[in-house]
Write a structure and sequence with these properties.
- There is one protein chain.
- The protein has 116 residues and is of the alpha+beta class.
- It contains 3 helices and 4 strands.
- The longest helix is centred in the N-terminal third of the chain and has 21 residues.
- The two termini are 25 Å apart.
């Protein structure tokens, strides 16, 4: 998962340096958080392989994680006493949008975060 966070940080650094995009520091942090949660869940529940795509779409960072699993993730009801399994809740709280869908050979989860 640390490798996925590094890839995300490098992607955002290149977006700034090579394309002059204004990327808020908060967006850096949130992108790494979202990547970490999604990739961790993919390995935890499916076991791999996992494909992660990062792109800039308009005024957003788009994170797409694909895996072989067919069960779409569902956020659980809030429960302060529950230990763990808060990843999707966290992602939904920080993202502008979250979309999960089945695809041939598995599923994808697409998260959009504002650049600024």
């Amino acid at each position: 998962m640390s490798q996925a966070r590094r890839v995300a940080a490098d992607f955002l650094a290149r977006a700034r340096a090579d394309h002059g995009l204004a990327v808020a520091e908060k967006t850096d942090d949130l992108t790494r958080l979202v990547v970490s949660e999604l990739v961790t869940n993919a390995y935890k529940y499916v076991g791999g392989p996992v494909l992660m795509e990062l792109s800039v779409v308009g005024a957003h960072i788009e994170v797409v994680v694909r895996d072989r699993g067919t069960d779409l993730p569902v956020a659980r009801a809030a429960d302060a006493g529950r230990i763990g399994q808060h990843g999707l809740e966290i992602v939904m709280a920080v993202a502008q949008s979250v979309e999960a869908r089945r695809e041939p050979g598995g599923k994808s989860i697409t998260v959009r975060l504002p650049l600024e």
